[in-house]
């Protein structure tokens, strides 16, 4: 994410989607089967050592934090390139995203079909990124000043903080938008740069049910849905995830033999393998990047790595 760009975005998305698979399959493997004791299941055993201790430090916190981790991951997916675009397409196809347009006067404003709000402004709500941008009609006149547009924002009761994006070209519009406060304050307005007419006005109440849910989820993800408590919960989940990763590394280190990679043995129960396989297959169909990565790993493992003798000695 620090590097930026499409490639970095896809790596972040791939890691997030694989985290969902690891979480779901991990819970399935962990799920108690004919085990009466709560120790090592929902409470860690502090009187044990070695790999068993690290197993408890991995499985027990992962169980308690699983729902919160899943929420953090899922609420971040709308920002991703591939899954995010699928979510937007779903919202459009089911009419549960933003309305086709929302205007405050007369007839529907004309709009260039290829120009979307995300093409002319950056600081906008997720739900209105694909909102069509209308055009300013009264060309040849002097454009409004920023002070005039700021007055319009206050008149239209757009809550601060908001951003005013300058028009692009003679037919461009001023865009007033806010997405950094409470979800209910979300607003995206397109204003004629000459007359000050509000050509398009979309608020949180105009969103469809899916767009509203995602908007609330984004606020939860960013830690601004219910203030400091939201941020504290996010911090606990983040620290918990770091702890889960450290404990998994320690389990691997305790398991691996000298000169080996420490790949785990196949489960004794073949039903476990089949269930995990179908979970991965299902997630791969829903999340395209995961599906592609599974195919790549399978091809490398089956047809490339298996043919290289030195690598086989490491398993």
Separate helix tally: 10
Radius of gyration: 25 Å
Query: Strands across the major sheet, in which order?
Result: 3-4-5-6
Report the biggest beta sheet as strand number plus sense, adding barrel if it closes: 4 strands, antiparallel
Poorly predicted residue ranges = 103-109
Helix and strand element order = HHHEHEHEEEEHHHHH
Kindly give the count of domains: 2
Report helical residue fraction: 40-55%
Q: Given the C-alpha coordinates, what overall shape results?
A: elongated
Class from helix and strand fractions: alpha+beta
Overall pLDDT = 87
Distance between the termini: 33 Å
Number of strands: 6
Beta-strand residue fraction: 5-15%
Transmembrane segments: 12-31, 62-80, 232-253, 276-300
Pfam families: PepSY, PepSY_TM
Protein name: Iron-regulated membrane protein
InterPro entries: PepSY, PepSY-ass_TM
Structure description:
The protein is built from ten helices and six strands. It folds into two domains: 5-80 and 223-312, no CATH class; 100-207, no CATH class. The model is unreliable at 103-109 (pLDDT under 50). Helix 1 crosses helix 2, helix 1 (5-30) packs antiparallel against helix 8 (270-286) and helix 2 packs across helix 6 (209-222). Helix content is 51%, strand content 10%. The protein is an alpha+beta fold and 315 residues long. It starts with a helix and ends with a helix. A hairpin with a 5-residue loop joins strand 5 (187-192) and strand 6 (198-203). Strands 3-4-5-6 form a four-stranded antiparallel beta sheet, with helices on one face. Strands 1-2 form a two-stranded antiparallel ribbon.
